[in-house]
Amino acid sequence: MNTHFSCVGCGKCCTDHHVPLTLAEARQWAADGGNVIILVEAFLGNGLGLPADQREHAERRSVVVPSGTAEAFVAITFAAYNAGRCRNLDEDNRCGIYERRPLVCRIYPMEINPHIPLNPGAKDCPPESWEQGPALIVGGELVDGELAELIRRSRQADRDDVQTKEAVCALLGICTTALKGDGFTAYLPDMNAFAQAVELAMQQPAASNEWVFHVSAMDIAEQMLDAGARIATQVPANYAFISLRAS
């Protein structure tokens, strides 16, 4: 089955979506007056929280940190905070920074995670977007070479940036993560403090701090404790927990 796509300019992908940013993009976003949200998830060295076939990709975009006596692989996402319309979207749904828009915006609607297939039904684009335009996927393969290169660059930035992102978190006092698949911890730091932390971390990334896990239920907490990980026991002071667990 082939998949076609053509943007119809509805602006839905630019509304109520936190757009993942590379470290350089996050630095620019903050300099432009935008807000950056920090989303954190992790899995344990014993594989808890991660299907085995996804481990290689997950490890490559994670930094190894201690949690109690356990080894945790923490993935940190800096994202443009878009509650409502993106700050760069004009009245005609045109991007005001189109020539320097983030990589993820250039890649849309494709997925960056190789374990997530493109599903038009999961996108906000109207049906007509998928009824016209050039072929994106033919016979299950991405056929746009330029788009494939952008995806490669995005994945590489994930790997290149992770140590510095963790150093930024340390400077901001961020050390609580969620278990991958169970949820995310989400932080909205002061942007002046964020910008200063990025500059410092880029100069000299610090050694990893110990991290603790915020979990959604006792059964997960027991598994984490059995594995030697530390569990957060205090009410969140500087973050929100976004649960991914079915209620």
TrEMBL record:
Alphabetized InterPro entries for the sequence: Puta_zinc/iron-chelating_dom
Superkingdom in the source lineage: Bacteria
Cross-referenced PANTHER family: PUTATIVE-RELATED, YKGJ FAMILY CYSTEINE CLUSTER PROTEIN
Identification of the protein by name: Fe-S oxidoreductase
